Amino acid sequence: MNMRPVSIIGVPTDIGASAIGARMGPEALRVAGIVEAIARYGCPVSDWGNVTGPLNPQRGPVDGFRHLDEVAAWNRTLHDAIFAELEKGSLPLMVGGDHCLAIGSISAVARHCRERGHKLRILWLDAHADFNTSAITPSGNIHGMPVACLCGHGPAELTGIGGRTPVISPADIRLIGIRSVDEGEKRFLLEQGVEVFDMRYIDEVGMRRTLEMALDGVDEDTHLHVSLDVDFLDPEIAPGVGTTVRGGPTYREAQLCMEMIADTGRLGSLDIMELNPALDHRNMTAELAVDLVESLFGKSTLLRLYQS
């Protein structure tokens, strides 16, 4: 089991979305006991509080992007915070906040891997592919664009954070749990060769086989980054998100996903995104997210031979 110190960094903004509320996600996760949950399994954990950035001006899109300058400012600050923790040997856990913030966190992780000569594998757990560009989305919401930006398709303010464009290759990422993709986005994903395990695939082969495929090739030289959008989960069990899509993974499927990631021992960084307490019921979605994080850090029903 990975026993590196864990550094929690809150990013309280919904700057990349049209609906407000995800800015309250970090505090909801703290109230649900995320610090105590990780510490319970022997990991040293520090909560470094929240980074700060521009207020959400709640304006409409300009030239196809909503709040581009503000999104870029938040992500540059976040990149620096995540990179500093990685350089100290910590496992950064970014609690958001909307999913545009993954541009900053993954840019930092990719830079760290380049400088250390490590391979990178990203598991993007989400109901949405987040592979839109300003040309194929009418909303201009940047929380629907982070994967495309990381792969070099987007404005220069976002595609080069961390010093290289593109930040990652499509070969570095696996999208899991996808069930809502715009028409233009479908074609773009296919053209770029992004590997997508949608809900039909999970229905057909099961979560175990899906994770085996998504983790294929991960070895001791691989940094594994997990970016968990809470709308990955079925809204019956996780209503506290701004963009619910029916038909997501069940509680047990999600737990199996986290347990198999934990079994690799390669988890190096983590995002928890898009929790919107304003839409939740008695903080149940935050509590579920913390429950899943426990599984990532060692919770299991039984002691198993491959656990240390």
Task: Describe what this molecule looks like in 3D.
With 308 residues, this protein is an alpha/beta fold. It has one domain: Ureohydrolase domain (Arginase, Chain A, 3-Layer(aba) Sandwich). It has helices at residues 25-31, 34-39, 68-87, 102-116, 146-150, 156-159, 183-192, 199-214, 251-264, 284-296; strands at 6-11, 45-50, 91-96, 119-125, 173-178, 195-198, 222-229, 267-273. An eight-stranded parallel β-sheet has the order 2-1-3-8-7-4-5-6, sandwiched between helices. Helix 7 (183-192) links the parallel strand 5 and strand 6. Helix 3 (68-87) runs parallel beside helix 4 (102-116). The chain starts with 5 loop residues before the first strand and ends in a 12-residue tail after the last helix. The relative contact order is 0.18. The mean pLDDT is 95.
Summarize the structure.
With 308 residues, the chain is α/β, with parallel strands linked by helices. 36% of the residues lie in helices and 16% in strands. Strands 2-1-3-8-7-4-5-6 form an 8-stranded parallel β-sheet, with helices on both faces.
